[in-house]
Design goal:
Blueprint: E1 8-12, H1 15-25, E2 30-39, E3 42-49, E4 52-58, E5 61-68, E6 75-90, E7 93-97, E8 102-106, E9 111-126, H2 127-138, E10 152-153, H3 158-175, H4 184-201, H5 207-210, H6 221-232, H7 240-247, H8 251-262, H9 266-284, H10 291-297, H11 303-314, H12 318-325
Antiparallel strand pairs: 1-3, 2-5, 3-4, 4-9, 5-9, 6-7, 6-8, 6-9, 8-10
Helix pairs in contact: 3-4, 6-7, 6-9, 9-12
Length: 326
Amino acid sequence: MTYLQNHTILSSGDLDEVRESIKNLASRHDLDVKGHNAEFNARVAAVECDDISLMHVAFGNSRLTVESSEEDDDGLLLYIVTSGAGVAQHCGQELEFFPNAGFMRDLAAPVSATEDNFSAFVLRLSKDKLKNYTRSVVGEDVEINGLRFDPVIDPTTPGWNVFCNTVHYVAEALDGPLRELHNPIVTTQMKDILVAQCLSLLPNSYQDIVNGRTVTEVVPYYIKRARDYIHAHADKKLGLADISAAAGCGYRGLQKGFMDAFGMTPMAYLRVVRLKRVRAILKAEPYGKTVSEIARQWGFTHMGRFAQDYHREFGELPSETIRKHG
């Protein structure tokens, strides 16, 4: 079956051309064809669904090796295999794939794979946008940390089957009756369906929150000490050495403990705490000090970068927060 037939952007047997196309759509992949008589004839199709992209890639009757390094802290690629088989190494796990199986690739980590006669849907996602969607569902008062997906997805679970059916439905709709409609309301609804099911049905660190379940997570005592120290001294000049000393552990243990507990490094956690302090002031006293003064008070010296971080965390600029609460 040819998926997204009316959205084909490339059909080629040229490896370099295919590499460039995939790099522009998703991320850089170093592809290499194995075997002298391999029939490499790649097809790439892609369609925008509001602000996420749905692709289908197929590599013909060939065996490929794939190497891709870490390159994007925000990006995720969700694969739904439509044909072929293979195995990948990613995030310290071995992932086997076959028709109807799936796996989640975090672009912040490298991957290596071997693929035979491979084709798949690929959904490009943003962690920040998924986080903002979660916040819009559960409210701003609920504490949500870094987003982590389990790379391995059990293909026998009902949730995965529902999600796969939805992806096929969206692909058929965008390739058929909606192809000429160009209605942003409809495409936004399609995007919302995919995002909601991705967060609620696939194994990830927000799944319990999105589904209204109580989240209980055991945090090591030394990570609690570091967390409490950050909250108590967020207005001071802090470095990794200060936090590590307060926790009573080494840098490596601190970094791993924060990634396991919160899905982010200690310094990233500190930045989020500071952003929340700035936001609380902007909401409570919108016409007091200037945004720059408040930001500098909480350790932000580069205003352009501060505005980007603020928007990434809360889905709005500081000026928008002031207007809402003025």
